[in-house]
Amino acid sequence: MRSATPWSDVVAYLVEATGETLYMVGVSTVIATLLGVPVGVWLQLTAKGGLRPNAAVHRVLSFVTDLGRSMPFIVLLVALTSVTRLIVGGSIGSTAVIVPLAVGAIPFVGRLVQNILSEVHVTVVEAAITTGASTLKIVRSVLIRESMPALINAIGVTVIALIGYSAMAGVIGGGGLGDLAIREGYQRFNDRILWSTVAWLAVLTTVIQLGFTRAARASDRRRHASV
Amino acid sequence: MITVENLTKSFQGVNALNGVTLDVEAGTVLGVVGPSGAGKSTLARCVALLERPDSGAIRVDGTDITSLDGSALRAARRQIGVVPQGDSLLRQRTAAGNIALPLESAGVPGPQRRTRVGELLDLVGLTDKATAYPDQLSGGQRQRIAVARALAANPSVLLADEPTSALDPETTGSVLTVLDRARAELGVTVLVVTHDMGVVRKICDDVAVLEQGRVVEHGKVLDLVNNPVSRTSSALLPAVDLNPINENSYDRVADVVLVGFAAVGALLPEAAHRFGVELNIVGGGLTRLGETPVARFRLGLNGERSDSALEWIGEAGGAVQRSLKGPQGVAA
Ligand SMILES: Nc1ncnc2c1ncn2[C@@H]1O[C@H](COP(=O)(O)OP(=O)(O)OP(=O)(O)O)[C@@H](O)[C@H]1O
Ligand SMILES: [Mg+2]
């Protein structure tokens, strides 16, 4: 029976793995947001009753989006190896994980965004149309701005989901908290590392979730409602 | 100013508009009324350029706006301020920010925008609410902000679909006052869709009655009330209750419509005096159409020269609608 890993080492492990997770999840969230929001906007614009309804474009876009969302991440992780190598110059390590994470999250974000934008009331959108606003102006000042609180929450949901997906990063040597829990904790019967990581993940996700909820509320002018 | 010519529009086989022809003179207020499903909103949405008619034309200052596209369409939309039915304000923007939206669309620079927004807040009497968000405003205040927004880019036409439908009578008054000021102070031409005859009574110069996608009556409110068979007159004028007991004691009973201060104030006493008859008001009442007092009275007359008195009232400008008792055809 070997002695338990000293707490100082556990902390060192956690710090390193947290850095890797935040790096992978952070960068892929930014990419997924930058690309997923336009996908969501495009889905909503071309939808029935949207600003630029186009059934054919909408159907194709929906199909690709739903296909992307239904793909298990682990499959994406290995299937995208050659694409990843092309983009980041290698197919292992934290940076390499960013590609499949981002690719997997784009349709996820796209669908969330479309659902949110479709909630903006048609009278509000039509009122903006009657002011002579361009489509771009309506997207920015009406659809996106009116939905900001919900969009911020959606990004929060995406971050949490990506933290989950990134647990599989170990498969291609990406590291991170999930990998730490599985490889150092579970596979080596190191309960201290396993449970510390689990506890830390719970704290981390809660804090992140809370942060996004706060930010969403801060951006919401409706909260000012009196009486 | 606005001319609607033979407008038709159908939705999956439902003919919402069946050849609507209308015109609104510059600087006047037209009320479009009619039963539910008559096509009022469809007409309003066509004029607001939110719906394309199947055929016909909508001319603003002579130009047909129904077939525009792209930037010409957006420019035409700026000419037509719209107060949509229901809540239409951006909830994430202040009152001032909402009013600024059309100015942003028109590319008006920041400082000018702020000045203009200030003017409009003043016009609708909500200067102190500039930084309030829609959720902090009452329904009537929100609607006045929506009117201010519609007027921001100096449109020549203001279009409002049921601007008072969700409001209580007092708040309705404040919104109507704002619409009336828009016409009086900015000279805009106003088209207001409503099911509330009170709106017509208070602010409309003209009225168009729509039924099953057709205009069945169209004209000046003050002319139409004088026409006993018009729907407008029966809807706008005070009701005359049947009161047979009262009426039995008179030689002649007739309904008369009087328009204007002079007529309402002096015509009846003078008729009684001239012809030496007893003339009593046995029913009906007084109302106001805009600034003009209008009365519909049921008169009871006793005396030999009762018919002459009624005839004289008709010649002096009163509309004698029907002689309920005594020889018919006395009506002017
Ligand atoms: N987008 C649409 N799709 C299908 N039918 C429609 C549509 N818009 C209007 N209609 C139909 O056209 C007719 C006229 O509708 P419209 O909304 O113009 O009536 P309205 O006079 O405004 O009635 P209300 O007083 O109830 O508002 C109705 O029969 C309605 O069902
Ligand atoms: Mg309607």
Question: How would you describe this structure to a colleague?
Answer:
The complex is a heterodimer of chains A (227) and B (332). By secondary structure, chain A is mainly α. Chain A is 76% helix and 0% strand. Chain A has 9 helices and no strands. Chain A has helices at residues 7-46, 55-70, 73-79, 81-88, 94-117, 122-130, 135-165, 177-186, 191-218. The mean pLDDT of chain A is 91. Chain B is of the alpha/beta class and 332 residues long. Chain B has 2 domains: 2-233, Rossmann fold; 237-325, Alpha-Beta Plaits (2-Layer Sandwich). Chain B is 36% helix and 30% strand. Chain B has helices spanning 40-47, 70-79, 95-105, 110-123, 139-151, 169-186, 197-203, 221-225, 231-236, 244-247, 261-275, 306-315; strands at 2-11, 14-24, 29-33, 55-60, 63-64, 80-83, 157-161, 189-193, 206-211, 214-220, 252-259, 278-289, 292-302, 319-325. Chain B has a 6-stranded mixed beta sheet, with helices on both faces. In chain B, strands 2-1-4-5 form a 4-stranded antiparallel beta sheet, covered by helices on one side. Chain B has a 4-stranded antiparallel beta sheet with strand order 12-13-11-14. Chain B starts with a strand and ends in a 7-residue tail after the last strand. Mean pLDDT of chain B is 90; it is low at 328-332. The A-B interface holds A 121, 123-124, 126-134, 137, 141-142, 145-146, 148, 219-222, 224-226 and B 48-50, 74-78, 80-82, 84-94, 101-102, 104-106, 133, 135-136, 146, 149-150, 152-153. The complex binds adenosine-5'-triphosphate (ATP) and magnesium ion. Adenosine-5'-triphosphate (ATP) binds at residues 11-12, 14, 16, 34, 36-42, 195 of chain B.
Which terms summarize this structure?
heterodimer, A: 227 residues, B: 332 residues, alpha/beta, Rossmann fold, six-stranded mixed beta sheet, four-stranded antiparallel beta sheet, disordered C terminus, binds adenosine-5'-triphosphate, binds magnesium ion
